[in-house]
Amino acid sequence: MKTWQYLLAGLATLAAASALTMGPVRLPNNNGYINITLGASPDNSLLECVYHLEGEEVATRVSWEHWDGGETKGRYDWYASLPNQASGALRSVVNMDREDGSLEFLDLNYDLSGEYSCSVTLSSGEEQVAARWEVPVVDSVSHLSLLHRSLSDCLYTSNYSTLAMYPEPVVRAGLYSEEMGGFYKEVLGSQWLVDTHTNGSVTYSYSGISFELNAETPVDISFYVMVGVMKRDGNYIPISSTLDKHIILHQLGCQEPRVAAYQHIDYHRDTITCRGEHRETEATVTCKKGYHADGDVEAVMISCNEVTRTWMLEDGQPAKREDLGCVIDGAPSTASVSTALLAAALVLQRFLLP
Ligand SMILES: *[C@@H]1O[C@H](CO)[C@@H](O)[C@H](O)[C@H]1NC(C)=O
Ligand SMILES: *[C@@H]1O[C@H](CO)[C@@H](O)[C@H](O)[C@H]1NC(C)=O
Ligand SMILES: *[C@@H]1O[C@H](CO)[C@@H](O)[C@H](O)[C@H]1NC(C)=O
Questions:
Q1: 3-138 adopts what CATH topology?
Q2: Residue 140 Cβ < 6 Å to ligand 1
Q3: How far is the CA of 138 from the centre of ligand 2 (A)?
Q4: Which N-terminal residues, if any, form the signal peptide (predicted)?
Q5: pLDDT score for 336
Q6: What percent of the chain is modeled with pLDDT above 70?
Q7: How is domain 140-250 classified at the CATH fold level?
């Protein structure tokens, strides 16, 4: 073919497309599925065949096909000049009295899940078909209250159950940390029980699964349950999620205090958390046996500020190792040593600091 022939072929296609343009099939409010719990209504169970006419043309027929797993399960034909016809799975569930070619279900059941395509025929005889579109029929209500959990001995133990759902859900539950990029420890696939009901709906549950909280547990850890439905095209539809937030936030404390080798720490009050941190703590730092205070201060009191998670002195200042200087017993006190010795002692002390 010569170039001008290609051009003409292209123009012919454009001309044909402009008489009737088809959009994809759509549900009301940009919904991605039909919610069976809401019941049939034009706000929930109405499939629209989107098309746009040019000029004088009118649509004389709109035909719907329902597919499931590559097989046609039902059909609905709307005619501008009535009567309309429905067959297969669409018989007796479709509103036959609509004046447009939309497919409205008056009765919902699981078998209506699947793919739908529509085609429009014009008075000129021209016909266009919209691509098939998947319409899941989902039976599930939010079940936020079905997570039961307890935290004791640094074990987070929980039970969870979905309600009866259709189609089979995709479920995930476990310790979750945004900092760590998602699920940190998870309920295994084999730990979920699957109960299939006679009408085809299923219940997913687990009980008594424990996770240990320890020094490696991220600070932002939560327990997260995600329930959704996967469309055949791989798109995930979230249905319910439950987040037990920051389960060890009330348990955070200060890390092990870093005392110098010549210092000794005595705890008067102390609680060690699951992450091995100190809270509700009060302690005294003194010079270790064989050392004595290098100055007037013989001991410093420190406590953990649980908001900033840092060690503080009694006066509210941050505690540092050099707040208490100690020297070896028997060594001359710094007041009497020569300048050279004092410099050496300072160097030694700096050596021991962080
Ligand atoms: C369906 O609608 C019910 C009632 O409004 C609602 O509780 C439920 O979460 C909805 N389910 C889905 C899957 O959207
Ligand atoms: C989980 O369920 C078991 C029995 O099924 C019950 O004994 C236990 O107390 C439940 N645990 C929680 C945290 O609710
Ligand atoms: C299917 O069975 C379950 C469990 O018996 C029930 O809760 C659900 O409502 C049923 N769904 C339909 C659409 O009949």
A1: Immunoglobulin-like (2.60.40)
A2: yes
A3: 29
A4: 1-19
A5: 38
A6: 87
A7: Immunoglobulin-like (2.60.40)
